[in-house]
Amino acid sequence: MSADDLTIAFHIGAHKTATTHLQRSLMKSVEGMAAAGVRYYGPQDFRLPGRSIFALFGLKDASPVGPRRSPQAQLALMRKDAARIVFSEENFIGVLNSPRRLPVKQRYPHAATRISRLAAAMERPIDVLLGIRHPTAFLNSAYCQQLMGGRVVPFARYHQINPVKSVDWLDLVARLRAAEGVGQVTVWRYEDYATLFPRICSALVGARAASLVRPLDRRIHEGLSAEAVSETLARHAKDQTEKLGFAMRKTMPVGPDHPRFDGFGPDDHAAGDAAYAHQIAGIRELSGVTFLDPDQPE
C-alpha cells in the first residue's frame, strides 16, 4: 500500500461534547478497526511523557530533546498497514479553561495554526471533526470541570472571565476551514450526539470500521449538581483544599434529588439560544464543511 493511499482524520473535540465517550467507544473496537484498515490513536496514546502529538511530530512546544524520529517515520510507524489513521485528542487545540484571569475573547485561538503545522509535518491533508455545544451549557460544564480540577472560584467570577459571547463555534469552524492543510471538516451538535453516533463514527473511521463500533451505555463524565457546587464553594472558603469537586459529585450526584448546576438566568440562556442558532446557520453555509443533522438523510 503506497503512502498516497493513506488518509488522516482528527477528532479535535471540542471539550465537554462527549469526547471521552466517543474515545472510549472507539477504544473498545480498536482491534476490529485495525483489521478493517483503520488505526485509531487517542488520549491513552498522547498523554504520556514525551508522547504528545507535539513531541511525536516535532511541532512547536515539543519536548526540548526533540522528536525521536522524523514526522514521516513516526507516521509510518503509527500507520503500519492501515489505509486511514484516526486521532482523537481535544487537548491538541488548546485548554478548556485558561489559567489566565483575563476575559476570554476567542476560544481555541491556536487551533487552526496547530492543525496546519501537523498537516505540514505529515505532508498530507487532515480531515477535521468537531462537536459543538450550546454556549450556556458548555460554560456550565466547563465551570464544573474547573471546580473538579481544584481551581475554585464563584460562578459570577467565572462568568466574568468566560462570557457567553466567548463561545463562538462559527468563528472556530471558519478558522479551521480556512487553515492550510485541512481537508474535509465535519461538525455536529452535542445535543444530537446520541442520535448521530453511527454517522459520526462513519465520518471518522469510515463506514466499514464504523459498523464495528458500539456506543458505551453510560455517561463518562457527569457534571455537578447545584448542591455539589454550593458545598464545594462553602468548603473551599473554609480552606478545605482536597479534591472537593470530585467528592461532592459522589456525595450529591446529579439526579432527581440533586438538579444539575446551572449558573445562568433566563436572559443568558436566551442570548445563548440566539447565538447558537446564528452560529449553526453560519456553519451550514461554509463551503467544505459537512454539518451532520439528524433531520437530514445520510
List the SSEs and their pairings.
Layout: E1 7-11, H1 19-27, H2 30-35, E2 38-41, H3 43-46, H4 53-56, H5 71-79, E3 84-88, H6 111-122, E4 126-132, H7 135-148, H8 155-161, H9 169-178, E5 182-189, H10 193-205, H11 207-210, H12 226-237, H13 244-251, H14 266-285, E6 289-291
Parallel strand pairs: 1-3, 1-4, 2-3, 4-5, 5-6
Tell me what you see in this structure.
It is a single chain. The protein is an alpha/beta fold and 298 residues long. The protein has a domain at 3-138 and 167-218 and 273-291: 3-Layer(aba) Sandwich (Rossmann fold). The protein is built from 14 helices and six strands. A six-stranded parallel beta sheet has the order 2-3-1-4-5-6, sandwiched between helices. Helix 6 runs parallel beside helix 9. The model has no long low-confidence stretch (mean pLDDT 93).
Radius of gyration: 20 Å
What name is given to the CATH topology of the domain at 3-138 and 167-218 and 273-291? Rossmann fold
Distance between the ends: 30 Å
Q: Major sheet: size, sense and barrel closure?
A: 6 strands, parallel
What percent strand? 5-15%
Order of helices and strands: EHHEHHHEHEHHHEHHHHHE
- Give the overall shape, derived from the CA principal axes: globular
What structural category arises from helix and sheet content?
Answer: alpha/beta
Q: Total number of β-strand segments? A: 6
CATH architecture of the domain at 3-138 and 167-218 and 273-291: 3-Layer(aba) Sandwich
Strands of the widest sheet, in order across it, are 2-3-1-4-5-6
Name the helicity range.
Answer: 40-55%
**The level-1 CATH class of the domain at 3-138 and 167-218 and 273-291:** Alpha Beta
Average pLDDT works out at: 93
What is the tally of helical segments? 14
Question: Which regions contain 5 or more consecutive residues with pLDDT less than 50?
Answer: none
Oligomeric state, counting identical vs distinct chains: single chain
